[in-house]
Specification:
Radius of gyration: 18 Å
CATH topology: Rossmann fold
Number of helices: 9
Strand content: 5-15%
Structural class: alpha/beta
CATH superfamily: Thiamin diphosphate (ThDP)-binding fold, Pyr/PP domains
Shape: globular
CATH class: Alpha Beta
Largest sheet: 5 strands, parallel
Order of helices and strands: HHHEHHEHEHEHEH
Strand order of the largest sheet: 1-2-3-5-4
C-alpha cells in the first residue's frame, strides 16, 4: 500500500522519482516498439506526472486489493496518452511484468487505451471529454460517504476543447468538490495541429479560477514542482476543486517527435527507438 507524503520531498525521494521517471520513459518507448499503434508522443509527456502520483506518496492504493474502498481514484481521461502507466502498474504489482511484452497483441488485456479489465484502472476512456465528468461523480459520492479519498484525473489540452469538460468544470466548482484534482497535460499539440491554431486556452489557470477552482501552473517535467503541487492539493484545506496545469513537451526526448505538430499520429521505427533510448536526455 502506498504511503502519503507529509510535505516537501527530500533530496532522496526526488532522486528516486527522477530515476523512476527515466525508467518509465524508456519502458514506454519499448512498449511502442512492441505496439507501434500506441500514441507514443502523447504517452511521453505525462511521464513525470504519473511517476509522481504512484511513487511520490500521492496516490493511496493497494495492488493486493485494487477495489479497496479507501483508495484514491485515478482516471486517465486522455487514455490514448497514458500507455506509460503500464510499466508503473507492473512495477507496483497490479499486473505481471511479463504482460508488457504483449501490449496490443491477441489475448492481451493491455491495449492501446487502458481499460477497466486491467487491475488498477478505474475507467475506460477511449472517447475524450468524459473523464472529468465521471471524476466529478466519484468525488461527489465519496464526499457523501464522508470518505477522505481523493479523485485525480489527467486530461490532455486537446481534450479540453470538448464542451463536456467545461460542463464538468462548472459542476465541480458549483459543488465545491475539494477532493477532486484535475491535472492538465498541457503540451500544446492536439491530434493534427498546435492547440493555439484550434482553440487556444491560455491562460488556463485563470480560466479555471473563474469557475471556482484553485489552479496553479507548473513545469510538468520538473519532478520537484510536480510533487509539491500534488502534495499541496491534499494539504490545501480549500473548499474548491483543484487544478494543476502541467506544461509539458509532447514526445519529450525524441527528436523526431518534439515540437512536431503531427507527432500525435507518428510512429517510431526500431532504429529510432534504439537511438532515442541510447541518447536519453
Amino acid at each position: 500500500m502506498s504511503n502519503e507524503s507529509n510535505g516537501t520531498a527530500d533530496a532522496a525521494l526526488l532522486g528516486r522519482l527522477k530515476e523512476k521517471a527515466a525508467w518509465v520513459w524508456r519502458e514506454t518507448l519499448k512498449i511502442h516498439g512492441v505496439a507501434p499503434e500506441t500514441r507514443v508522443a502523447s504517452s511521453l509527456s505525462p511521464v513525470e506526472i504519473l511517476t509522481t502520483l504512484y511513487y511520490g506518496g500521492v496516490l493511496r492504493f493497494d495492488p493486493r486489493n485494487p477495489q479497496w474502498e479507501g483508495r484514491d481514484r485515478f482516471i486517465a481521461s486522455k487514455g490514448h496518452g497514458c500507455v506509460s502507466i503500464y510499466p508503473i502498474l507492473a512495477d507496483v504489482g497490479f499486473i505481471a511484468r511479463e504482460e508488457l511484452g504483449g501490449v496490443c497483441k491477441a489475448g492481451s488485456r493491455l491495449g492501446g487505451i487502458p481499460d477497466m479489465n486491467i487491475p488498477g484502472i478505474e475507467t475506460t476512456n477511449g472517447s475524450l471529454g468524459h473523464g472529468l465528468g465521471v471524476a466529478c461523480g466519484m468525488a461527489l459520492a465519496l464526499k457523501q460517504k464522508r470518505s477522505d479519498a481523493f479523485v485525480y484525473v489527467i486530461v490532455g489540452d486537446g481534450e479540453l476543447s470538448e464542451g463536456s469538460v467545461w460542463e464538468a468544470v462548472m459542476f465541480a466548482g458549483q459543488q465545491g468538490l475539494n477532493n477532486l484534482v484535475l491535472i492538465a497535460d498541457f503540451n500544446g499539440i492536439a491530434m493534427l495541429d498546435y492547440c493555439r491554431n484550434i482553440i487556444g486556452l491560455d491562460p488556463l489557470d485563470r480560466k479555471l479560477r473563474e469557475f471556482q477552482w484553485d489552479a496553479v501552473t507548473v513545469d510538468g517535467h520538473d519532478i520537484a514542482a510536480v510533487h509539491q503541487a500534488l502534495t499541496n492539493c491534499r494539504r490545501a484545506g480549500t473548499t474548491r476543486p483543484q487544478a494543476i496545469v502541467a506544461r509539458t513537451v509532447k514526445g519529450r526526448g525524441v527528436p523526431q517527435l518534439e515540437n512536431n505538430s503531427l507527432c500525435h499520429v507518428k510512429s517510431l521505427n526500431p532504429e529510432q527507438i534504439a537511438a532515442a533510448i541510447a541518447n536519453q536526455p
